[in-house]
Amino acid sequence: MDYTCNDIAQMIDHSLLRPELTEEDVRKGCEIAKKYKVATVCCRPSEVVLVKQLLQDSDVKTTTVVGFPHGYNKTETKVFEAEQAIGDGAVELDMVINIGRLLDGDYDYVKKDIHAVVEVAHRHSVMVKVIFENFYLSDEQKKVACRLSEEAGVDFVKTSTGFAGGGATIEDLQLMRAEVSEKVQVKAAGGVRDLEMALKVREIGCTRFGATRTVTMMEECYKRSEQK
C-alpha cells in the first residue's frame, strides 16, 4: 500500500447535509468523524455551532455550505451566509456558483460572485471550495469555471453538491485537475462511495472528497491494511 488509512481519512469531508437529518443524526455523524479522524464534518449552516461544539475535543474541522444547493442566491446573501458561518465557527466553506449565470455566459458576474465570498473568508483565514455542479455543464463550461474560480482566488474547485442528477466522474476530475494550477486543490463530491473510488480520485490528484459512507470506506481500509 502506498497510502495509510490516515491518508484516506484526511481526504474525507464527512457529509451531514441531507435535509432529513435530525440532531441525533448530526451527533452520531460527528462521533463517526472523530472515531475515524477525518478532515472535516460538512454540515448544514444551522448546525455549525453544534458541530463545532461536538468536535472541540478533536482535530476534525467544521465545514459548511454557502448558496447551497442551487447557487442562485444573490451575492449579498452568499456574503452574509459566509460571515454568519465563520462567526459560528466554520473554518472551510463550500460555495455553489451561480449556475444559470455561467450557462448564460455572464462570466464577470460569476467571478465577482465567487470573489465576494473568497474575500470575506480569506480575511478570516477560512478556505473556500467552489462547487460547479458539473451535471449541468459542458466540458468547455467546466474549464471556464475552473479559470474563473482560480482568478477569484479559491482554495478548491469541487465537482458537485451531491443533490443534482450526477456527481463526480473520473473524467471531470481529470479535466479540473488539468485546468487549475497547483495552487488550487480539487474536491470530488457525489459518487465516492467506496475505497476503490477514493483511491482513484487520490491517484488523479484530488486532495479531498465528500462522503456519507465513511464507516464502510474506512473499515475496508483497515481490513486491507491487516492483510498486507
Could you explain how this protein is built, in words?
Helix 4 runs parallel beside helix 6 (107-123) and helix 7 packs across helix 8. An eight-stranded parallel beta barrel has the order 1-2-3-4-5-6-7-8, surrounded by seven helices. The chain has 228 residues and is an alpha/beta fold. 49% of the residues lie in helices and 16% in strands. It is globular and about 50 Å long. It has one domain (5-222): Aldolase class I (TIM Barrel, Alpha-Beta Barrel), CATH 3.20.20.70.
Number of helices: 10
The coarse overall form would be globular
CATH top-level class? Alpha Beta
What is the percent of helical residues?
A: 40-55%
- Strand-residue proportion: 15-25%
Give me the CATH fold name.
Answer: TIM Barrel
CATH superfamily: Aldolase class I
Largest sheet: 8 strands, parallel, barrel
Q: Give the distance, in angstroms, between the N- and C-terminal Cα atoms.
A: 8 Å
Which sequence of SSEs, written as H and E, runs from N to C? HEHEHEHEHHEHEHEHEH
Low-confidence stretches: none
Radius of gyration: 17 Å
Overall CATH architecture: Alpha-Beta Barrel
SSE class: alpha/beta
Strand line-up in the sheet with most strands: 1-2-3-4-5-6-7-8
Total domains, how many? 1
